[in-house]
Amino acid sequence: xxxxxxxxxxxxxVLLFILGITLFLVTCTKDDGSEEIEWESITRKxxxxxxxxxxxxxxxxxxxxxxxxxxxxxHRDVALQxxxxxxxxxxxxxxxxxxxxxxxxxxxxYQQWQYNVIATLEGIESPDSICxxxxxxxxxxxxGDPFAVAPGANDNASGVAAVIELARVFMKGNFSPRNSIEFxxxxxxxxxxxxxxxxxxxxxxxxxxxxxxxxNDMIAYEPLTTPSSWxxxxxxxxxxxxxxxxxxxxxxxxxxxxxxxxxxxxRQSDSYPFFEHGYKALFFFSxxxxxxxxxxxxxxxxxxxxYCREIVKVSCALLVYNN
Length: 323
Description:
By secondary structure, the protein is α/β, with parallel strands linked by helices. The protein contains 8 helices and 8 strands. The chain has helices at 6-49, 52-63, 75-88, 153-172, 194-205, 241-254, 272-276, 305-321, and strands at residues 95-105, 108-121, 126-136, 179-186, 209-216, 231-235, 258-260, 281-286.
């Protein structure tokens, strides 16, 4: 037998290289497909666990506090009760994040501590990178005395209920995010977005890595009872069009919702300060304007919790997808 020629050795080397590249590409394709399947399976498990009854119970509970007006004497107690709720769900790290409010209201100057309530599901790979699910818990009235009564079922117990329900299903489902997830109930939104402004400014000042902020505000008013007619308004900002497109895909894949994008009021809720500091944010809002807005009739009995559930699913899917 003759010795192997250099040409033959080169051919074998090239063949082995090609086989190696092919195997690598096949393996990567398999891994990508497996990850997609796993992501969808986890998302469906979590979204299926989101409960309209749970959302209704949280809204009724918040409504039952009497008033959640920012300047009312019970404003700290409201924050403490929300903190207690998160702790009961297993978030022992839930904390009150205080900020000073200095505001003149009806010719009286108020200087008092206000509170954001923050529960954290810590990331296992990049805990310093944060995804936020947020909503404001305070309410106000157009007519009447908000110091006495301000039920705020749709505005915005519905959004806080969404945040609490997300926290519940992620804890129950033993979800381990790559990035940390913060579930935040913001204070003092109605008088000027004070809670979210304080949080976003501090985050930017400390170079905090916020991957995205999902804001739910007034998401339970829908008089139509046919799910095929339900629409969610997904408001975005100049830096979050791609995130909105992700949300639209989540609507199609995991909910019965159609969607639209009307940014008319996108500066009037807690997502806006995050955008101002360069963070990506979305604002989920009911398609139909609530005629009971800021009235004594903004009660849970006038909310559509099946519709609310579908909107909460979108936030849930986005949080899974980005982790």
